[in-house]
Amino acid sequence: MLKWKDDYLLGIEKIDEQHKELFRIAESAYNLLKSEYFVDKYNKIIEIVEELRDYTIFHFQEEEKYMMSIKYKKFFSHKMEHDNFIKKLNEVDLKAIDENQDKYIMELLEFIVNWISEHIFVTDFKIVNKVR
Protein backbone atom coordinates (compact mmCIF):
# COMPACT_ATOMS: atom_id res chain seq x y z
CA MET A 1 0.00 0.00 0.00
CA LEU A 2 1.18 3.48 -0.82
CA LYS A 3 2.08 5.42 2.33
CA TRP A 4 2.48 9.16 2.80
CA LYS A 5 6.05 10.38 2.76
CA ASP A 6 7.57 13.82 2.61
CA ASP A 7 8.47 13.28 -1.07
CA TYR A 8 4.82 14.18 -1.78
CA LEU A 9 5.11 17.61 -0.16
CA LEU A 10 4.50 20.51 -2.52
CA GLY A 11 5.41 23.08 0.08
CA ILE A 12 1.87 24.50 0.12
CA GLU A 13 0.68 23.60 3.60
CA LYS A 14 -3.06 23.58 2.94
CA ILE A 15 -2.74 21.41 -0.17
CA ASP A 16 -0.19 19.10 1.46
CA GLU A 17 -2.58 18.48 4.37
CA GLN A 18 -5.39 17.74 1.93
CA HIS A 19 -3.18 15.29 0.02
CA LYS A 20 -2.48 13.52 3.33
CA GLU A 21 -6.23 13.12 3.78
CA LEU A 22 -6.46 11.46 0.34
CA PHE A 23 -3.85 8.96 1.53
CA ARG A 24 -5.93 8.33 4.64
CA ILE A 25 -8.99 7.56 2.51
CA ALA A 26 -6.93 5.18 0.37
CA GLU A 27 -5.68 3.51 3.52
CA SER A 28 -9.24 2.98 4.73
CA ALA A 29 -10.02 1.23 1.41
CA TYR A 30 -6.93 -0.95 1.85
CA ASN A 31 -7.89 -1.80 5.44
CA LEU A 32 -11.38 -2.76 4.28
CA LEU A 33 -9.92 -5.04 1.63
CA LYS A 34 -7.76 -6.80 4.23
CA SER A 35 -10.48 -6.92 6.89
CA GLU A 36 -11.83 -10.30 7.92
CA TYR A 37 -14.61 -8.72 9.98
CA PHE A 38 -16.89 -7.80 7.08
CA VAL A 39 -18.50 -10.53 5.03
CA ASP A 40 -20.50 -7.97 3.06
CA LYS A 41 -18.41 -4.87 2.41
CA TYR A 42 -20.85 -3.16 0.03
CA ASN A 43 -22.01 -0.38 2.37
CA LYS A 44 -18.45 0.34 3.51
CA ILE A 45 -17.26 0.54 -0.12
CA ILE A 46 -20.05 3.00 -0.94
CA GLU A 47 -19.07 5.09 2.11
CA ILE A 48 -15.43 5.20 0.95
CA VAL A 49 -16.38 6.12 -2.62
CA GLU A 50 -18.68 8.89 -1.37
CA GLU A 51 -16.06 10.16 1.07
CA LEU A 52 -13.43 10.13 -1.67
CA ARG A 53 -15.74 11.97 -4.09
CA ASP A 54 -16.84 14.58 -1.54
CA TYR A 55 -13.32 15.17 -0.27
CA THR A 56 -11.75 15.41 -3.72
CA ILE A 57 -14.41 17.91 -4.80
CA PHE A 58 -13.48 20.04 -1.78
CA HIS A 59 -9.75 19.52 -2.33
CA PHE A 60 -9.90 20.28 -6.06
CA GLN A 61 -11.80 23.50 -5.40
CA GLU A 62 -9.13 24.57 -2.92
CA GLU A 63 -6.30 23.62 -5.27
CA GLU A 64 -7.98 25.41 -8.17
CA LYS A 65 -8.44 28.55 -6.06
CA TYR A 66 -4.74 28.46 -5.26
CA MET A 67 -3.80 28.00 -8.92
CA MET A 68 -6.00 30.95 -9.87
CA SER A 69 -4.45 33.09 -7.14
CA ILE A 70 -0.96 32.53 -8.56
CA LYS A 71 -2.22 32.83 -12.16
CA TYR A 72 -1.04 29.31 -12.95
CA LYS A 73 -0.68 29.01 -16.72
CA LYS A 74 -1.72 25.36 -16.96
CA PHE A 75 -4.86 25.82 -14.89
CA PHE A 76 -7.35 24.56 -17.48
CA SER A 77 -5.53 21.33 -18.34
CA HIS A 78 -5.01 20.71 -14.63
CA LYS A 79 -8.71 21.34 -13.94
CA MET A 80 -9.63 18.88 -16.68
CA GLU A 81 -7.72 16.17 -14.83
CA HIS A 82 -9.67 17.02 -11.69
CA ASP A 83 -12.97 16.92 -13.60
CA ASN A 84 -12.10 13.53 -15.11
CA PHE A 85 -11.33 12.13 -11.65
CA ILE A 86 -14.72 13.24 -10.33
CA LYS A 87 -16.43 11.93 -13.46
CA LYS A 88 -14.88 8.50 -12.89
CA LEU A 89 -16.13 8.46 -9.29
CA ASN A 90 -19.61 9.52 -10.43
CA GLU A 91 -19.72 6.63 -12.90
CA VAL A 92 -19.28 3.95 -10.24
CA ASP A 93 -21.31 0.86 -11.17
CA LEU A 94 -23.11 -0.10 -7.95
CA LYS A 95 -24.11 -3.50 -9.33
CA ALA A 96 -20.50 -4.32 -10.21
CA ILE A 97 -19.43 -3.45 -6.67
CA ASP A 98 -21.99 -5.82 -5.21
CA GLU A 99 -21.04 -8.67 -7.52
CA ASN A 100 -17.35 -8.72 -6.63
CA GLN A 101 -16.59 -6.47 -3.70
CA ASP A 102 -12.90 -7.26 -3.16
CA LYS A 103 -12.18 -6.91 -6.86
CA TYR A 104 -13.84 -3.49 -6.83
CA ILE A 105 -11.83 -2.37 -3.80
CA MET A 106 -8.63 -3.43 -5.61
CA GLU A 107 -9.69 -1.45 -8.69
CA LEU A 108 -10.48 1.56 -6.50
CA LEU A 109 -7.09 1.30 -4.81
CA GLU A 110 -5.31 1.02 -8.17
CA PHE A 111 -7.20 4.09 -9.36
CA ILE A 112 -6.22 6.10 -6.26
CA VAL A 113 -2.59 4.93 -6.28
CA ASN A 114 -2.24 5.72 -9.99
CA TRP A 115 -3.83 9.11 -9.41
CA ILE A 116 -1.44 9.88 -6.59
CA SER A 117 1.64 8.83 -8.49
CA GLU A 118 0.62 10.51 -11.73
CA HIS A 119 -1.29 13.55 -10.59
CA ILE A 120 0.46 14.62 -7.40
CA PHE A 121 3.98 13.67 -8.46
CA VAL A 122 3.68 15.00 -12.00
CA THR A 123 0.83 17.48 -12.43
CA ASP A 124 0.68 19.04 -8.96
CA PHE A 125 4.45 19.40 -8.76
CA LYS A 126 4.30 21.63 -11.84
CA ILE A 127 2.33 24.16 -9.78
CA VAL A 128 5.42 24.77 -7.66
CA ASN A 129 7.90 24.09 -10.49
CA LYS A 130 9.35 20.98 -8.89
CA VAL A 131 10.78 18.79 -11.61
CA ARG A 132 9.96 15.09 -11.46
UniProtKB/TrEMBL annotation:
The keyword Ribosomal protein is annotated on this UniProt entry:
no
Q: Which UniProt keywords apply?
A: Iron, Metal-binding, Oxygen transport, Transport
Residues reported to bind Fe cation 2: E63, H78, H82, H119, D124
Q: Does the keyword Ion transport apply?
A: no
Could you say which residues bind Fe cation 1 here? Answer: H19, H59, E63, D124
Q: Name one Pfam family in it.
A: Hemerythrin
Using the record's annotation, list all stretches that form the Hemerythrin-like domain.
Answer: 11-129
What the entry lists under InterPro entries is as follows: Bacteriohemerythrin-like, Haemerythrin_Fe_BS, Hemerythrin, Hemerythrin-like, Hemerythrin-like_sf, Hemerythrin_metal-bd
Q: In terms of domain of life, where is this protein from?
A: Bacteria
Give the signal peptide range: none
The GO molecular function terms of this record are:
iron ion binding; oxygen carrier activity
* Function comment: Oxygen-binding protein. May be involved in a storage mechanism or for delivery to oxygen-requiring enzymes. The oxygen-binding site contains two iron atoms.
Q: What family does this chain come from, according to its entry?
A: Belongs to the hemerythrin family.
Subunit details: Monomer.
**Protein name as it appears in the record:** Bacteriohemerythrin
Which organism is this entry from? Clostridium pasteurianum DSM 525 = ATCC 6013
